Amino acid sequence: MEKTMEDLEDPPMSAVLLDHCHFSQVIFNSVEKFYVPGGDITCYYTFAQHFIPRRKDWIGIFRVGWKTTREYYTFMWVTLPADLNKESAKQQEVQFKAYYLPKDDEYYQFCYVDQDGVVRGASIPFQFRPENEEDILVVTTQGQVEEIEQHNKELYRENQELKDSCVSLQTQNADMQAELQRKQEELETLQSINKKLEQEAKEQKDRWETELLQLKAHNEKMSSENEKMGVRVDQLQVQVSTQEKEMEKLLQGDQDKTELLEQMKKENGQLFLSLTEQREQQKRLEHTVEEMKEKESRAARKHEELTEENFDLSRRLSDNKIMLDALQREKENLERENELLKKENSRLLSYMGLDVDSLSDPMLTSNHGGAGQNPGLVYGNPYSGIQESSSSGLFSVKKCPTCKSDFADDICEQQHVCLSCPICHKIFPAREKQIYEDHVLCHSL
């Protein structure tokens, strides 16, 4: 699609289909049937009473038959009025430069799109062609009716396939919800187990810290006693040395002194043995402290593994939730497409009903009736937009007292002149001169 060179960014767009648009909030005025190529065109539009324009709103030129706002040909940003409360703010206009306009003779229309990508108004169809080019009469032939019926059958078949797919997606959605519920229950169980393990680990750690403090205090006490025993051993060694010297001097002395010396030696040996046992006990205490440190390290690693497992389960739960959201969006898209097919069927039925009186062949009339059962026309009659816009309820309609035709309130009754077909004597208002000429031309074909 071509864009205006004055804009540095793309307009807000969306994949919203026709049945989600609101065409009555912005009304386009003074739209010509034909615009001469090579010249600028001005688009006039009016805001509804409660509609508030926004900064990113834009007006695009769309080829008739568009499905989403991404299919614009060119666009212009909307200029916000200074005061929305003034009556002049309701009437707006925007100009499209000639070198951005389409060069073919297809039917186009103006569309007002808000900054959310939703269409708020659409004009009647128009063409870009020279003024002297004659109007082309669109005649629906038997072959075209058969093609429409074939297209309706294909649309009906696609609609059935979409319904089957929707049922399958609903089943998958139910399965995913059950799986999600099961995962949530597993997560809650694991969270409960993790919380219990954390509490047990905390209590075990507190017990180990208490025992460690007690062992440290006991170790300090034993170290103090060991130091005292060492001092005592040194003292005893000095005393033994002194006694040995005295024993050497008194070797020939009293027997009682010899027995006393032997007793002192035994006491010295017991002291050495007690010292050795205390040192071994100290080593055992140190070994016990090391084992408790290893147990604490293993408990910390176990806590980290449980934390990682909890994080993994949380991530898997998030992935399942994202998948569920994607399935729900896909289901909504399928429902919107199904609604679009229903709208298109209704449009085809309305379109086929416009030409039933002008067809004299009973077979064509029956074909029109069959097409109404399986509608699906996408693009529609270019003139149908004019007729639909005239009957959309924007103007009140009255009956002509002379020819019983409809005309708007803003047309004076004195100026209302009727046109009569010279062949079938059908009456047309003067404002429908173009339709009258097309009707007369149909008799000559």
Level of helix content? Answer: 40-55%
Query: How far apart are the first and last residues' alpha carbons, in Å?
Result: 39 Å
Largest sheet: 4 strands, antiparallel
Q: How would you write the strand order of the largest sheet?
A: 5-4-7-8
Task: Please report which band the strand proportion falls in: under 5%, 5-15%, 15-25%, 25-35%, 35-45% or over 45%.
Answer: 5-15%
Show unreliable segments: 1-8, 355-396, 408-415
The helix-and-strand class reads alpha+beta
Helix count, DSSP H or I runs of 4 or more residues: 5
Radius of gyration: 49 Å
**What is the N-to-C order of secondary-structure elements (H for helix, E for strand)?**
EEEEEEEEEHHHHEEEEH
Shape: rod-shaped
Q: For the residues shown, what is the average pLDDT?
A: 78
Q: Compute the number of strand runs.
A: 13
Textual characterization of the structure:
With 445 residues, this protein is α+β, with helices and mostly antiparallel strands. 54% of the residues lie in helices and 12% in strands. It is built from five helices and 13 strands. The strands form five sheets. A four-stranded antiparallel β-sheet has the order 5-4-7-8, with no helix packed on it. A hairpin with a 6-residue loop joins strand 10 and strand 11. Helix 1 runs antiparallel to helix 2 (255-354) and helix 1 (142-249) runs parallel beside helix 3 (362-373). It is rod-shaped.
